[in-house]
């Protein structure tokens, strides 16, 4: 309110000052003018009065009848404007005078004053003007006197003063009224312009694109907008730098962020793998949770945000569970969001999923020494299926600017395809696997198409800065694009994509945490079920049966450790959970057989009686079963040869609320960049990995606790809600900035490059 008043005063004070100056200049001028007009008027009247008196005065003078003259003069002086009349005789004295004519005024003085430029004198009754009128001879009478007698008229000027006072009053009243009216008009105009300006500036900041109408961006804002663009970008960079490792992310906070920063917009997730698979077996329909890092990470986010998840319906009973729109509400026991299933023919699945995605892109991006295979037919299927997913996104979108979260290498073309149909959409794409260097990526015959597809995103996320750098270098190598390394932005045909690292994580705390059996009970159960000795040291590996996971290298290290430390034979056991995956592919089948051979070899070498050092559990395990294993284990071994992040190590840490257990972690997993208290190994170096497993087996409980506490802090603080929260708040800011830029572009400003 105070600010508003101050603002109004800024308009009013100069106006008031201008009015005072105007009055100061105008009043004396007007007074002077009125006096001149009245003087001229009086002179004309004086001549008339003198003419009227002339003959009677000469007659009275001829008869030397002064009394008659006095009567004549008094009568005439009754006119309000004639103050007095006198007759100066030829002797120079006053021969006759009206009553008001001052006795002290001599003829000489009167005549002299009348001849002046300003013929005024001041008498006790007020100012008077003097005029002299010589009498001339007439036909009937002759004066015959020398010098000629003269009539002296004194004109009352007080009426001029009265009128001048009135004029001054009117003028002041007029100027005051005028000033007031002008001030009101000025205020109104200023108010309307100010409001419009502020509305325009606000709209500009919000990024609303209103080309016409009262909220359209005003031309006078155009230069400001240019400045604004640079400042916004700068502030955004500063904000991100200053934000640092934010903590305290929960599902509630994520929901709040969606509401406040993205105006409660609907979230659409699109991925190949679905979070819940309905399968049919002898007992009926069974729900299965797939072994997938992607699903582990995204599912809790979807539970927090609701919305729709579009995915391939791959279960044998999936079609039986959906409604007419191919939707089913999940989680099945407590529905919180909608799963929209996409149906693929076996040929489509073969070409798109097994072929292009898993025989081509997967080995291309994981430098795990398996040759990528690229077939034209697979590419065609990949393109067609990506189009199907993009169409489903457009169908599901209820607004023209939904927030779309595109997941992984199966759907690299989806961002650009969605962008074509929904140009205002905010598309966040997350690449869950590593991005290789440009030389490796250059092997892909459709590298340009993949890059352009991904650059339809608003934000493209990777797990690590290293992968972002590889991506930017790949773009630089293969397509025409403007790259702003400082801001991590790639622009293709003026469409910008922000490239950023968002290390993915898991849910913390886990919703079932309170139901977990104690670590002692879990150990007891596992030992009993798998027939381990009571004093067993349990090592654990949990993976999909994938050649990138370093399972062979891990088993080789276990073998080497038992070789080097015979005292652990009969005591150390290693449980490898390996969920079958992509088993129709030769590479995967061959890999599974290789692992089975190695496990048998080790068991043959070091096993005795019922002691088998390696237990291979090549079947799907649900989360509850995994938790039991994690809590029973002494050591968890993650030896990926190349891994975007790896969430097994985080799940292991999250499950160990007893602060015991040791993590052995490959330096080639993205997680190694965060989990420094693990024993970090190079899985290609068998000796080093064997020594690390041995060290873990011998580690004191105190050291385990120290390391585990620190690891748990990391996983708790950098949980999956923070991952999603960072992406979504970056998206909100990016969306705002993009809108500002869009408006600036619409108003034809030159390209701004002062970033
Ligand atoms: C892992 C990777 C994900 C990938 C998933 C695919 O979790 O980290 O990036 O999407 O495997 O597994 P799938 O069984 O769906 O082929």
Automatic annotation (TrEMBL):
GO terms for molecular function: alpha,alpha-trehalose-phosphate synthase (UDP-forming) activity. Pfam families: Glyco_transf_20. Keywords: Membrane, Transmembrane, Transmembrane helix. It comes from the Bacteria. GO terms for biological process: trehalose biosynthetic process. The chain crosses the membrane at residues 12-30, 170-194. InterPro entries: Glyco_trans_20 (IPR001830). Belongs to the glycosyltransferase 20 family. This is Trehalose-6-phosphate synthase. It comes from Noviluteimonas gilva.
């Amino acid at each position: 309110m105070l600010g508003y008043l101050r603002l109004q005063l800024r308009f009013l004070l100069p106006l008031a000052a201008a009015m005072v100056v105007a009055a100061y200049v105008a009043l004396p001028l007007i007074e002077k003018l009125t006096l001149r007009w009245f003087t001229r008027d009086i002179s004309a009247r004086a001549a008339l009065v003198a003419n009227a008196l002339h003959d009677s005065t000469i007659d009275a003078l001829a008869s030397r009848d002064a009394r008659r003259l006095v009567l004549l003069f008094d009568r005439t002086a009754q006119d309000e404007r004639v103050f007095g009349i006198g007759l100066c005789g030829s002797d120079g004295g006053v021969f006759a005078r009206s009553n008001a004519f001052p006795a002290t005024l001599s003829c000489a003085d009167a005549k002299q004053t009348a001849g002046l430029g300003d013929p005024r004198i001041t008498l006790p009754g007020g100012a008077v003007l003097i005029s002299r009128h010589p009498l001339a001879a007439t036909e009937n009478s002759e004066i015959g006197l020398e010098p000629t007698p003269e009539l002296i008229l004194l004109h009352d000027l007080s009426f001029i003063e009265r009128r001048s006072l009135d004029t001054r009053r009117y003028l002041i009243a007029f100027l005051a009224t005028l000033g007031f009216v002008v001030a009101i008009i000025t205020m109104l105009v200023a108010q309307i312009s100010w409001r419009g300006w502020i509305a325009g500036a606000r709209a500009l900041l919000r990024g609303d694109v209103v080309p016409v109408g009262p909220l359209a961006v005003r031309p006078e804002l155009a230069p400001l907008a240019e400045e604004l663009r640079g400042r916004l970008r700068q502030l955004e960079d500063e904000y991100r730098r200053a934000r640092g490792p934010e903590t305290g992310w929960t599902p509630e906070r994520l929901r709040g962020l969606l509401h406040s920063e993205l105006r409660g917009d609907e979230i659409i997730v699109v991925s190949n793998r679905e979070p819940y698979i309905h399968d049919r077996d002898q007992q009926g329909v069974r729900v299965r949770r797939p072994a997938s890092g992607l699903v582990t990470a995204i599912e809790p986010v979807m539970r927090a945000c609701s919305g729709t998840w579009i995915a391939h319906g791959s279960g044998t009973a999936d079609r039986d569970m959906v409604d007419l729109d191919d939707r089913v509400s999940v989680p099945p026991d407590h529905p919180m969001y909608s799963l929209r299933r996409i149906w693929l023919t076996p040929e489509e699945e073969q070409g798109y999923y097994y072929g292009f995605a898993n025989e081509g892109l997967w080995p291309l991006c994981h430098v795990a020494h398996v040759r990528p295979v690229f077939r034209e037919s697979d590419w065609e299927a990949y393109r067609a299926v990506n189009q199907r997913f993009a169409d489903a996104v457009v169908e599901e979108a209820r607004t023209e600017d939904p927030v779309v979260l595109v997941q992984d290498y199966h759907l690299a073309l989806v961002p650009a395809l969605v962008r074509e149909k929904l140009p205002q959409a905010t598309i966040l794409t997350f690449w869950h696997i590593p991005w290789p260097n440009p030389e490796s990526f250059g092997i892909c015959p459709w590298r340009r198409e993949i890059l352009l597809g991904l650059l339809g995103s608003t934000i493209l996320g990777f797990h690590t800065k290293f992968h972002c750098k590889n991506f930017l270098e790949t773009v630089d190598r293969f397509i025409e694009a403007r790259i702003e390394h400082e801001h991590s932005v790639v622009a293709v045909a003026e469409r910008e994509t922000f490239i950023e690292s968002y290390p993915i994580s898991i849910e913390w705390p886990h919703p079932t945490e309170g139901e977990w059996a104690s670590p002692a009970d879990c150990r007891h159960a596992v030992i009993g079920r798998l027939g381990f000795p009571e004093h067993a040291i349990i090592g654990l590996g949990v993976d999909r049966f994938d050649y990138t996971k370093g399972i062979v290298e891990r088993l080789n290290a276990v073998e080497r450790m038992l070789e080097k430390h015979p005292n652990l034979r009969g005591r150390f056991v290693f449980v490898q959970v390996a969920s079958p995956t992509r088993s129709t592919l030769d590479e995967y089948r061959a890999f599974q057989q290789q692992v089975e051979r190695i496990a048998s070899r080790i068991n043959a070498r070091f096993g005795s009686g019922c002691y088998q050092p390696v237990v291979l559990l090549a079947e799907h395990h649900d989360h509850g079963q995994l938790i039991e294993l994690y809590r029973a284990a002494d050591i968890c071994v993650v030896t990926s040869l190349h891994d975007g992040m790896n969430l097994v190590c985080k799940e292991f840490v999250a499950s160990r609320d007893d602060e015991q257990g040791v993590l052995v972690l490959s330096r080639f997993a993205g997680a190694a960049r965060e989990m420094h208290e693990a024993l970090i190994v190079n899985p290609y170096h068998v000796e080093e990995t064997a020594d690390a497993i041995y060290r873990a087996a011998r580690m004191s409980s105190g050291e385990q606790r120290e390391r585990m506490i620190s690891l748990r802090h990391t996983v708790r603080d950098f949980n999956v809600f923070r991952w999603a929260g960072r992406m979504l708040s970056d998206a909100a800011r990016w969306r705002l900035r993009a809108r500002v830029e869009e408006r600036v572009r619409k108003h034809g400003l030159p390209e701004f490059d002062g970033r």
